[in-house]
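so my prof wants the structure for this chain in the tokens format not the other one, which i didnt know existed until like an hour ago. anyway here's the sequence
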Amino acid sequence: MSQTRRSTSAMVAGIIALIIVPGIAQRDAQPTNDLPNPYASVESWAKLPDGRTWGSTSAVEIDKDGRSIWVAERCGENSCVVDAVTGQMSPKDPILHFDASGTLIKSFGAGKLVAPHGIFVDRDGNVWVTDYQDNAPRPARGSGAGRAETAAQRGAAAGQPSPGAPAAGQAPAGGRAGGQPAGPLPGATVGHQVFKFSSDGAVLMTLGKVGGALEPDCCFQPTDVLVAPNGEIFVTLGHGQGKSEIVKFSKDGKILTRWGQKGTGPGEFDGPHALAMDSRGRLFVGDRNNNRIQIFDQQGKYLTEWAQFSRPSGIYIDKQDNIYVADSESESISRNHDGWKRGIRIGSAKDGSVKAFIPDPADHATGTSAAEGVAADSQGIVYGAEVGPKRLMRYVKN
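here's what i got, hopefully its the right format
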């Protein structure tokens, strides 16, 4: 065989492999930083009540009307606990509903959520929110029983360098004090649950035990929630501690199945952080610490994985199968992924192509930065929920 024919054959084989097994072909994807940014940034567009400031938020979602926006933020801090020693909760509502102009329509949820993390609006307009922290009382400083966290420190796991290794002055994931192991702590009256609210704030259902529970129960560090068209519910667990897995519930809240463990192989996770579903019913999981999106069917069968969207903190797929992926950690968190820029990558959930990139303006950040949660309305306006900078950004096409 001639050298030309041999080269052509190799090229064809490579193209076929890319089409048939995109997950394997893209596992060593090169950074997708040099893409056009057709968006203008709009800051401070959402109007909070007088005297209230934004707290950390990773939870943003579009209402079923396609235009208004739901946000769950952490009571002006990084936690809704105002007294770590007693576990006292803030009187502020963490769940906020804004119209398309940024005017606050309603708020609710005071006293029910410590650190809202993921949010989803189902076909009936119900609002689902995950709470990945708890309000278990922590010993006061100098008591000899470990240290107490401030409200801001209690939820600081979202910006820590790596699971189990908190940055200076920050609490480990789950708010563990004094080197206590992962798992629920005694005394919690709020936390580690998934709430289903009506659009008016009535609690319609909760998933998981108050204060958290490990397998065979649920939940510990629930990070995101998604309701499939048939009403079945998917929840990601494990924000640095506990088991990294997905739990599938029936529409009435019974556990149907669960899959995953900590690891790097297909169907394994390291901090599953986000969920989305495309028009084909495929489940997209942001496997953040593994720097990839894993794609499954609704029974948990592994289909493929994508690395070209960078380190996924948040994923949103619209009705046209446009996919929006928020990267809030590359190069600023010490684990890995140097060379990739933080920001929001936009592409196609159909073929995995990446078409646009909204970069993080804080190019030299040393902690979590840019959007951690992401959503896009029916007009293509993109919203980014930010934990570190404590704000909700709006991105409008030029």
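also thought this was worth mentioning. Residues 1-25, 146-180 have pLDDT under 50 and may be disordered.
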